[in-house]
Every structure is written in structure tokens, then in C-alpha cells.
UniProtKB/TrEMBL annotation:
Pfam families: Multi_Drug_Res. It comes from Photobacterium lutimaris. The keyword Transmembrane helix applies. It comes from the Bacteria. This is QacE family quaternary ammonium compound efflux SMR transporter. GO terms for biological process: glycine betaine transport.
Amino acid sequence: MGWLFLLLGVMAEATSHVALRATNGFTNWLPSTIVILGHLIAFIFLGQAMKSLPVGIVHTIWTGLAIVVVTAMSGLIYKQHLDAKVWLGMIVVAAGIAIINLAGAPHSH
């Protein structure tokens, strides 16, 4: 269940980060509400993930995956497109996350 909670936390945070642009300095109530609730929900899910996964692993995957998801969502929603070098950097981040997971880092139960 820890991995599911982690994924849900990443999605909640990524959604709130993408909505942050539409808040117009927190003057638009709907995106502002999405930002606040998204962060709250993300931390609730991350706290649940940390019950069964090590803090360092949760934090590493959360931040790395959030970078990629926010970038992809921004491209879809705001038509913000990045060049190949930036995407290559994100692939390196993703590869690092995969290596950490494949290394068999100890999991607490």
C-alpha cells in the first residue's frame, strides 16, 4: 500500500503545483483551493507511504517523479514545451530513481 500512497501523493502535489500558476497570486479561488487541498492531500498520502517505506526512498521518488509529472502536465495544460536537453535531464533523474529502487534499499515494515 505504501507505493500506492506514494503515487497518490505525487499526483496530488503535481496537480497543486500546476494549479499554482492559475491562482494569479491567490486571487482566483478555484485554483487556489486546488493548491491548498492538493498539498494537504499530498502530505497525508506521503505520511501514509512512510509507514511502510523508508523516508529517504519516499522523498527521493516523490521529488523526482513530481518533477517529471509537473513538467508533463504543464506541457499538456499550458502548452509549455521544453527542449531535448531538459527531457534528457529528467530521464537521468528517473534513471537515478530506478537505480535506487533496484539497489534493494531496506524497507521498514
